[in-house]
């Protein structure tokens, strides 16, 4: 009897950018958004253990059993997740994390450490950028608000959350007189 090829819906994804429209790069600090979108995709396909290892004994045992049951299929799914990671990051980041015979978990861990290392210095830099923000440098109030929100999200990424009340104060304090009402 011929062996049947296993199928998983994740193997049908050919355009991951339609599912994760954010391209992760070092310039725009969109790690928080990119990681959130990526984790949603992983949860939809029940492949979260390919990037985040289980920690509880019961989950760890089930993970080891499923991996051992069909190692070739597990490697194929892992390669699909790794391809998703590679397809949603900038060429510079790709060069920085690319390793021969890598796993999705290894690539994920390297990206995470790149964006979470040196948190204190990154937080200081972001706080300074936020303090120096000038509405006159933006073409519209929308771009100004979006940039402030982006900075606040990036501060959250480095464990220096910017409260909503501070966010509103920064936003309103930086507006020109025309928006006083």
Topology of helices and strands:
Blueprint: H1 31-44, H2 57-69, H3 71-87, H4 91-97, H5 104-116, H6 119-131, H7 141-157, H8 164-173
Helix pairs in contact: 3-5, 6-7
Structure description:
Helix content is 57%, strand content 0%. The mean pLDDT is 86. The protein has eight helices and no strands. With 181 residues, the chain is mainly α.
Brief rundown of the structure:
This protein has 181 residues and is mainly α. 57% of the residues lie in helices and 0% in strands.
Keywords summarizing the entry:
elongated; 57% helix; 181 residues
Mean pLDDT: 86
Percent of sequence in beta strands: under 5%
Stretches where pLDDT is under 50 for at least 5 consecutive residues are none
Would you list the SSEs in sequence order as H and E?
Answer: HHHHHHHH
CA radius of gyration: 21 Å
């Amino acid at each position: 009897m011929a062996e049947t090829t296993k199928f998983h819906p994740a193997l049908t994804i050919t355009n991951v950018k339609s599912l994760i429209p954010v391209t992760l790069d070092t310039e725009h600090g969109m790690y928080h958004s990119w990681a959130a979108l990526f984790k949603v995709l992983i949860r939809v396909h029940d492949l979260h253990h390919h990037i985040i290892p289980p920690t509880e004994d019961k989950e760890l045992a089930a993970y080891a059993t499923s991996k051992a049951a069909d190692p070739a299929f597990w490697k194929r799914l892992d390669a699909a997740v790794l391809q998703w990671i590679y397809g949603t990051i900038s060429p510079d980041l790709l060069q920085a994390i690319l390793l021969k015979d890598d796993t999705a978990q290894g690539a994920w861990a390297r990206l995470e450490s790149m964006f979470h290392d040196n948190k204190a210095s990154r937080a200081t830099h972001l706080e300074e950028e936020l303090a120096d923000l000038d509405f006159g440098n933006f073409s519209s109030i929308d771009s100004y608000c979006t940039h402030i929100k982006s900075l606040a999200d990036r501060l959250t990424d480095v464990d220096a959350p910017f409260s909503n009340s501070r966010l509103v104060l920064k936003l309103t304090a930086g507006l020109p007189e025309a928006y006083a009402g």
